[in-house]
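Subject: mismatched residue count in predicted assembly?

I count 1086 residues in my input, but I want to confirm that the predicted structure covers every chain. Input:
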Amino acid sequence: MSEPLHSDQLNLLARALRQKSFHFIIIGYDHPDIFPEISAWLREHLPDRPIRELPVSDKTFQEIQNILIQAYHDIVLIPDFDWFFKQENENISITFNQHRDFFARREITLVCFIQKKLFKELPRKMPDLWSLRSLELEFLGTVQRSTYSLSNIDDMESALLSVFAVLPAEPITRTILKGLLPNVNNLDATLQRLIKKGLIAFDEMDESFTCNLEAQETTRQQNGEQLFEHCELLISTLIDKLRYETDLTGHFLNATYKEAVIYAKYAESILQHIKKAEEQLAILAERLGNFHTTTGNLDKALTFYEDETRLFKELYDAFPSNVSFKNGLAISYEKLGETHAQLGNLDKALTFYEDETRLFEELYDAFPSNVSFKNGLAISYEKLGQTHAELGNLDNALTLYEQDAQLTKELYDAFPSNVSFKFGLAVSYEKLGETHAELGNLDKALTLYEQYRQLTKELYDAFPSNVSFKNVLAISYEKLGQTHAELGNLNKALTFYEQYRQLTKELYDAFPSNVSFKNNLAISYSKLGETHAQLGNLDKALTFYEQDAQLTKELYDAFPSNVSFKNGLAISYYKLGSFYKDHRPDIVATRNYFQQAEALWAELTESAPGYAKFQHYLIQVRKDLSELPQS
Amino acid sequence: MRQATKLIEIDAVVDKFTPVTPDNPFYVDFKNLRGDFQERKVMRILNVQQNTDGKYEFNYDPNRTNKTLLFLAGMRGSGKTSELAKYAQLLDSPNCFFVVTCDVDNDLDMDNVQYMDILIFQLEQLLIRANKENLKLDSHILESMNTWFQERVKEINTSLKAEGSAEIELDTDKPLSLGSLFGKMLGLTARLKMGLSGSKTHADTIRNSFKNRFVDFSNTFNTFIEETNRQLRQEKKAREVLFIVDGLEKTMSADTRRKIIMEESNRIRQIKANTIFTLPIELMKEEQRIRNFSEIITFPFIKLKERGGAPVEQAITHFEEFVYKRVAPELFDSPETVKTAIAYSGGSPRQLLRIIERANWYADEALGKITSADMEKTLDELGNNIARYLEPGDFALLKRLKKDLQAGNPIGFSNDIQGLLEKEVIYEYNDGTYKCVNPLLERSKLYKFNVIDAQ
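Triage response: the counts match. Full output below for your records.
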């Protein structure tokens, strides 16, 4: 018999079983053939120890116990141990657990097979037995090496098999497969040949293809170095499918959110199976980072952005004159910076943005006519500026935003029909407006926001189906509303906030999975609440505040590591608290909301100390609390 | 049991199950190394003190009417059963107690067990021991108890017959001797125990019969205990009975355990017999309520590090002794390898045994030693194994816990914390407020990614 797969684990198992003593050994598996294969292997390698097989399904505890009483010093293999975990078998499971000492005294070796997905049930269902565990092993796939080789298949079949080998081991419909491999010659014929050779299976009911685990494993091993080459089309298609808006919405351009979930799963599988420093794989990792950012999972996003950076760094180190790799590395730093900022790690964000800027400055200096590098540099200034603003360094922020605005203006003036540059210029006006507003220069801020609105309106009017343009137009209304409110023009503020709310609601209703849209809608409610309160429309104000709080709570509960959502919720509570303090004689409600806001800001000042505003908010709410009459 | 001098002998000496008593060559006394837990506290609660010979004596006279009920709570693998086995040895003597050990998880069918079942089991075990020691109990007391139980069994049988269930056998012969009286009572309790292990209906009928007459039952039981105590003193075999009831934490569901201890507390209070119970760890959050009717002590892991991080050298030394008594030092490539294993045990004897067991399986038999490389591989694997059982919510909790631990904040009891204790993800020390993450878990990739790097 040839060297089996998982030989290390099997040898460890044999080592554990050589002595006749009590052991509770757990084997996790995901392939139905694993039990007979391991049983056969053990019998071959431990001929001196009696081995019993004891399926427990549908047996009473007494029946099981009677068999085990006879199993003194034996190895007992239980192929269906997870049968105990079923709800209807709870009593027998408990009894089995309680008899742990009984089994231990008889020096029985229990080797218990549990499906991998049910592993976590074991300490819950049988904590005492689990506490005595000796060994936990996981066998994914089978033990036996494949008895077939790929020598009897042609290049096209081999390439197609590689595609199946890197995708998840589950049915893929014909439609999806064709969508992932567009314009492949003779795809249907090649699929048919693979089916005939038993290398893939076809389900007529849902027209799907499945490649079994064994064939996948063998293909990956035998095709090895060629895997990437075979899958290049697949990878570039997925990169295209997961393309996204380059603003902060991350909205998918070429897939619905439902489709994006599937494509992301495929992309993850590819990255798991092909470990090679290739630019396409780095970009694929970036796409995955964006997918997770858009759908709110920042921790996962960070993992994939780190993968992207690692791959680009490896490529750049190997080929330092390759500007594409350098550009990719710079962008990966930007992604890491963005994600760390969202997680509250401003210092880390700053470092990454500085690295990004350094690279883009080098690229731009070397290639001053390259608009992409110029644009990249402009964006890096904007990111740095944003971080400095968050850290409270407004002067630094202003300088950086001005640098950004200058570059993007030059780009836009040179290429007025380029929507990306127009968009970039609009954003630079927005950032400048924000900083001037913070510095108290409201008139200047208003002018800049008007310019921002003008540009975004033009973009949206030209491309009404563009989600990103709609979003920034909405934000321009919010900024204008905010500034007018600060200038005391409440009715104007209200008008802008209403427009903001309308657009964000349309975006959220169309794309409810996009957390950015949901957050903007919450902000619109908050702003409307504020303005109505100032105008004396108290019932309306309260309704909007409550709607805001509901949405922000949902966001925070779903994504507790996102500092923006946590802060948003704190603000919602603070505003509700202030509302009750100022307009309703309800000290209890006031205190309750303020305390909730305080708790959140206290956590934020600790977990994200770089954000100056959290400290400021915390001081404010504590002051408000201290001024409340004692109940 | 002898020390392993070859790698192949290690498996036999790292048995994680068998409790170790003071007379065992592997025994190591971790006295005063479990933080706030001290053996003398237990002894004080039991009203026991050491005489000039170092042996324990029970102060009978001042404590005629005091009967101790003590709950000992601790995590799995902390060494509770060994500790109780130690007390059973130390305290079983003519000047101290007549110790009756009841392993409820071994000898009772624990399906839906209730306090009544445990009491009947205690009585059975007492009778067994008394019979074995040839204790000459007053036959009238035994007869009266026998009669009382027989009447209960008749009532039970009436109900069972009405339900169509099989009845419990009754002996019809009048007993002639003390020995046969013992036998009769034993037979009765054994049959009752079997009945309790039978169908739920059967068991409920038996229990309800006793519960409905619990005052009666408790008087009978208490009288019997007092008579036994008196006879023990007369025969100079001991001063009083002490029950040690182990395994309660393995009963049924958390709900059943709670019912036994919380809802049956009134009945527990009526029984006048010195008893030590092991307590399910999750009931520590009910500590205040339990203190209304009993004493309760936490039995933590052995502390290897103080809160500030300073090592507890004495504990490490004791653990070295623990290892070297079982495994010859020359089977390790260096003392540092053993120290590493100890550090990652977190103060859990069971975890240390598991580490050594696994490291042995990785060791090169040709080399004949466990090396530091074997140890590192073991620790990585065991760490990743623990991480496998964690849910995403557990990582979020661990992140918060890490902050509290770094700040030196005490960590109380909650259902979430309970879950982590049950999965051996966190360990507790001292009185339970000092908790640490299982050091093995801290090595795992998942923990590093989800907790450390994520902060």
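Chain A touches chain B through 36 residues (CB under 8 Å). Marking this ticket as 'not a bug'.
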